[in-house]
Design a protein that fits this description.
Helix 1 packs across helix 2. The chain has a single domain, classed as 3-Layer(aba) Sandwich (Aminopeptidase). It has 166 residues and is α+β, with helices and mostly antiparallel strands. It is built from 4 helices and 8 strands, in the order ββααβββαβαββ. Strands 1-2-3-4-5-6-8-7 form an 8-stranded mixed sheet, sandwiched between helices. The longest helix has 17 residues. The mean pLDDT is 95. Bound molecules: coenzyme A. The site of coenzyme A has 24 residues, from strand 5, helix 3, strand 6 and helix 4.
């Protein structure tokens, strides 16, 4: 994995050493309104999760796990983006920013930067994001990046968005 730069964002491969900075950003319960996870209980448990993710691979080796923390031009850690890459050239993506950094263009810039890297660095040709129907911010972000609502339903409250990478 390598670091990436995009319009107004820097992406660094996520490491356990980011635990303290990430914990400060991920503690707000509002971040989790549309997520099926909860805020990390404490910095130590977040660090343990980051250590597991540093493997960059599922235990069977079939999936590549890519996680980048996102910094703004001032160097402040504003959130993270992630992708799970399967052997069939498909990837599932996710993205989370701290509340005080919302609506400043970081989310769209960071995801766009990750998509470029997925295509050029990992040969990904199809990307999927699963979101809650009411998650307007996530939906708008995806639409602005050229994703379209897919047909596969994952649950009554969820929508899948898909995009091909040329
Ligand atoms: C989803 C999320 C990453 C968006 O990040 P962001 O940096 O605020 O998004 P951006 O500033 O890049 O905005 C992207 C687009 O969404 C729009 N948008 C952002 N927040 C919005 C909201 N609450 N309601 C409606 N539109 C919104 C922006 O106006 C922009 O559209 P535009 O270019 O047409 O103006 C952020 O809201 C977040 O972290 N949410 C909590 C975690 C989450 O739900 N992640 C997604 C899981 S699938």
């Amino acid at each position: 994995m390598r670091g990436l730069s995009g319009p107004g964002v820097l992406l660094e491969p996520q490491m356990a050493e980011h635990a303290a900075e990430l914990f400060a950003v991920l503690g707000d319960p509002r971040v989790y309104r549309y997520l099926d996870t909860e805020p990390p209980a404490d910095e130590a448990s977040l660090r343990a999760r980051l250590v597991r993710l540093e493997a960059r691979r599922s235990t069977d080796g079939a999936e590549i796990w890519l996680n980048w923390i996102v910094r703004n031009p001032a160097g402040v850690l504003v959130g993270y983006v992630q992708a799970t890459v399967a052997s069939d050239h498909g990837a599932d993506i996710g993205y989370v920013l701290g509340t005080e950094h919302w609506r400043q263009g970081y989310g769209r810039a960071a995801v766009a930067t990750m998509l470029d890297e997925l295509r050029t660095g990992y040969g990904v040709t199809r990307v999927r994001a699963t979101i809650e129907r009411d998650n307007d911010a996530s939906r708008r972000l995806l639409e602005r990046l050229g994703f379209a609502a897919g047909e596969a339903a994952t649950g009554p409250s969820e929508l899948q968005f898909v995009r091909s990478l040329p």
